[in-house]
Design goal:
- The structure is a single chain.
- This protein has 821 residues and is mostly beta strands.
- It is 4% helix and 54% strand.
- The protein is built from five helices and 59 strands.
- The strands form 15 sheets. Strands 38, 40, 42, 44, 45, 47, 50 and 51 form an eight-stranded mixed beta sheet that branches.
- Strand 50 and strand 51 form a beta hairpin.
- The two termini are 65 Å apart.
């Protein structure tokens, strides 16, 4: 930015001053240049008496440039930095360069074209750094603009790093065979002959220790390669001059394995093993150790073998494949001194023999279960599907299976058991099946199974029930287990008591023939009508007319009392013991025991689903057999209730007599909140969080999931974390830490809440009190305000110090005036 002022010379026209001398007039001229250069302008001054023309030429220079440039490149390489120069003026610039510094080069002069319609003129000064060897140098570059007088100064730093490899040489050879490779090496010292010292970092590579190269020329170096074993190897070779400057090459040797000593054929079936003995010899007079490399699936053996001087030994190789197939493998013995020798292995694996499952027998209409196992030989979990090729008669069941129906997961090195189910569809004829489990890496297991059907014995008992003098309709399901059509007849046989009371009735016409196709299901309706509180029995008989095969379905009917008797409501506090004895009247049971000869009483406690787990440990109900015996028709029952947490639930009690009959009772159980376990006090300042922590374990010696929360009537200023988690077992060393926090937002009385920590079986209650810090006033501190009349002074003196203006009075008047207006 430039400024110019135009001044009238003395003696010119203009207004006179008080001294008689003409005044000097100043005309401010403001220039806003876009860049360095020359700017020309004309100023014209007009008045009623005169016109003046002034030509103005302004030269704008830049502030100059100062910068630092850092170069880094490998020795015998070069790097160039372009320094841009932009010309905004309408004249070309002539730039002269003054460069100082070792290994830096650049042109002496540079011309930058002027600004045109296409934009400003642009040119670049190319500065090159070319270190001949590792170094750290400094230099200076000054670019002077002769046209406008600008100067650009640069501080230079150059770092010559380690040289790059001249070339990467790839050599292909055979192990234990000599191969020669020629390398062209140039002279890195200009104008001087040189003798290089040669160093190489790879075993199996050799050559002359020195190489002479004439000045400004190249020489061939012969590299001899004989690798002791096959494989891919990388290394480098370095040529070092007496001045410690060096030139180096990287090379890669791809060595083929030497011819095999022998071909060994190994054949085995999957999951079996065969062994091969291979003799190896130590020809040296020192102890050597061979590293053993096995190539191929299913090969096992020692990873190394040591031989004494001139000793021979037998190496045992085990071939134990898991999957079927053929492949070529290898057994390689490697020693750094002797090299490598190997044996070619022809590996041939056949499918494993099927596993023969012992013959399975099952009755027609029933299922026989056989347990089978699969062992995982691998170090990771395997997963596969069990497939049966005869799903008419066979199926599989996997215990505790979280996956698909037939998907089996076998952990690493473990054995998993599953069940094969057989349901016969013929009698006396063998029925075959293959159960297959496959895995891509573990192989295939094939289980061959043969099952045979046999005549049926009694089927599973069908239990029915009904209230006395009422009827219940029941269905007995029968499935034709044969794969052929059958014609059956139905009959119902009653035992003595059931026949006397006509307790059962078949709801189909007697002796009616029913035709069933293969595997067809039917449901046979049976009516049960008990008249006494006794157990009634019957047998449903289904006979095939053609084969005389007979299926017998036992039916046991239980008579139930018509009413459910309510026993009352029982209340106690959590973690307290409640005992109670019921005297239950079993109506209709008098004299029935003598008919059956059995007076046993069975109890069934039926809790509500949400309370089932808790009551399994908190509630005990049993028959009280202690003397004296209860009167006939009565049952004495003892209840022990010891809840560990609050609960309110209903319990149903079923009483059954061995002679027959079942009575229903129910009652309510209420567990009130236990007494406070402990009191927690927390002091906290306003808008700040204070916390206390305590630790807990489970009451029992098992882990338990917990839930921690404050009761709804607790203040929001109290909180607890974590709110959910797992309590450690009682005998463990670890425990769970709870943090109770208090964050008051207002002053007032203490904040009191109840914290509850509960599991499925236990509950703890804590009273939490949040308090503000107690204030302690200052003691024996003198007042800083004079609030007493000094004795001996006139009270009028104090009245003179009162304010001259009564602001309270004036404000009151203003309010009244505003209201009146």
């Amino acid at each position: 930015l430039g400024k110019s002022r135009l001044c009238k010379k003395p003696g010119g026209g203009g207004g006179g001053g008080g001294s008689g001398q003409p005044a000097i007039n100043k005309l401010p001229l403001e220039i806003r240049p876009k860049g360095p250069g020359k700017y020309e302008s004309r100023v014209i001054l007009r008045s009623a008496f005169d016109v003046r023309v002034l030509d103005v030429e302004c030269t704008i220079t830049s502030l100059g440039t100062r910068a630092e440039l850092i170069f880094a490149c490998s020795a015998r390489q070069s790097i160039t930095q372009e320094i841009p120069i932009i010309n905004h003026s309408e004249q070309p610039w002539s730039i002269h360069a003054d460069l100082q510094g070792q290994h830096f080069t650049g042109s002496k002069d540079l011309v930058v074209p002027p600004h045109t319609d296409a934009g400003p003129g642009r040119a670049s000064y190319n500065l090159t750094f070319s270190p001949s060897w590792m170094c750290q140098v400094e230099g200076d570059l000054i670019l002077r603009n002769a046209t406008i007088g600008d100067t650009y100064q640069y501080k230079l730093q150059g770092v010559g790093e380690e040289p790059l490899a001249e070339d990467h040489i790839v050599i292909a050879c055979k192990a234990r065979w000599r191969t020669k490779q020629m390398i062209s090496v140039r002279n890195v010292l200009k104008g001087k002959a040189i003798v290089y010292r040669v160093e190489c970092d790879m075993q199996g590579v050799s050559g002359s220790e020195e190489l002479s190269v004439e000045a400004d020329s190249e020489a061939e170096y012969e590299l001899s390669v004989m690798m002791p074993r096959g494989g891919n190897f990388t290394g480098s070779i370095t040529f070092i001059s007496p001045s410690q400057e060096y030139i180096w090459y990287t090379f890669e040797v791809n060595a083929e394995n030497p011819p095999a000593e022998k071909t060994v054929a190994l054949r085995a079936k999957a999951r079996t093993a065969v062994a091969a003995d291979i003799t190896i010899v130590n020809p040296l007079d020192s102890v050597i150790t061979f590293d053993v490399i096995m190539q191929g699936e299913g090969l096992l053996g020692a990873p190394s073998v040591a031989l004494q001087p001139q000793e021979s030994a037998v190496y045992e190789l085990i071939y134990s494949p898991l999957i079927a197939g053929k492949m070529i493998g290898g057994l390689i013995f490697v020693n750094d001194e002797i090299g490598e020798f190997w044996y070619e292995l022809e590996l041939d694996s056949e499918e494993a023999d099927p596993i023969q499952v012992p013959p399975i027998k099952a009755e027609l209409g029933k299922t026989s279960k056989t347990k089978l196992t699969i062992e995982n030989p691998l170090g990771f979990d395997i997963e596969g599907e069990l497939v049966v090729n005869n799903d008419t008669n066979f199926s599989v069941t996997i215990p505790d299976n979280p996956y698909g129906d037939n998907v089996l997961l076998v952990p690493a090195y473990e054995t998993v058991e599953f069940e094969l189910n057989y349901v016969p569809s013929s009698m006396g004829e063998p029925e075959q099946c293959e159960c297959v489990f496959s895995h891509e890496q573990a192989g295939t297991w094939v289980f061959e199974c043969v099952g045979t059907g046999h005549p049926p014995s009694e089927m599973e008992v069908t239990k029915v029930s009904a209230t006395v003098m009422s009827s219940s309709h029941n269905l007995v399901r029968f499935r034709n287990p044969l794969n052929t059509e059958i014609t059956v007849r139905l009959a119902l046989e009653l035992e003595e008591v059931a026949e006397e009371d006509h307790a059962f009735q078949l709801m189909v016409p007697p002796d009616e023939s029913i035709t069933l196709s293969g595997f067809q299901d039917i449901e046979v309706p049976v009516l049960f009508t008990p008249k006494r509180m006794l157990e009634h029995s019957a047998r449903l008989i289904i006979v095939d007319d053609n084969t005389e095969i007979k299926w017998v379905f036992p039916i046991v009917g239980t008579a139930e009392a018509s009413l459910c008797v309510y026993l009352g409501k029982f209340t106690c506090k959590a973690r307290e013991l409640l005992k109670h004895t019921f005297m239950l009247e079993l109506s209709g049971v008098e004299g029935m025991e003598s008919l059956r000869g059995d007076d046993r009483t069975d109890l069934e406690v039926i809790p509500q689903p949400e309370a089932k787990e808790m009551l399994s440990t908190a509630l005990m109900v049993q028959v009280d057999d202690t003397p004296p015996r209860p009167p006939k028709g009565m049952c004495r029952v003892k209840m022990v209730f010891e809840p560990l947490k609050t609960i309110r639930t209903k319990v149903e009690l079923k009483v059954s007599k061995a002679s027959g009959g079942r009575w229903s009772f129910d009652y309510d159980l209420v567990a009130l909140a236990a007494d406070i376990d402990d009191t927690i006090r927390i002091e906290g300042a306003i808008n700040k969080t204070s916390s206390v922590a305590f630790r807990m374990k489970n009451q029992f010696d098992v882990e338990a999931e917990f839930r921690a929360y404050f009761l709804p009537d607790s203040p929001d200023e109290l909180s607890v974390s974590p709110s959910v988690g797992v309590l450690a077992p009682y005998s463990s060393e670890g425990s769970t830490e709870f943090k109770v926090s208090f964050h008051p937002k207002t002053y007032g009385k203490a904040f009191v809440g109840k914290l509850v920590v509960e599991t499925e079986e236990m509950q703890w209650i804590y009273e939490v009190i949040g308090e503000h810090p107690k204030y302690a006033g200052p003691q024996d501190v003198a007042s800083k305000v004079e609030n007493r009349l000094a004795p001996g002074r006139d009270p009028a003196e104090y009245r003179g110090s009162k304010p001259a203006k009564d602001y309270h009075k004036e404000n009151t008047k203003a309010i009244k005036l505003a209201q009146a207006t």
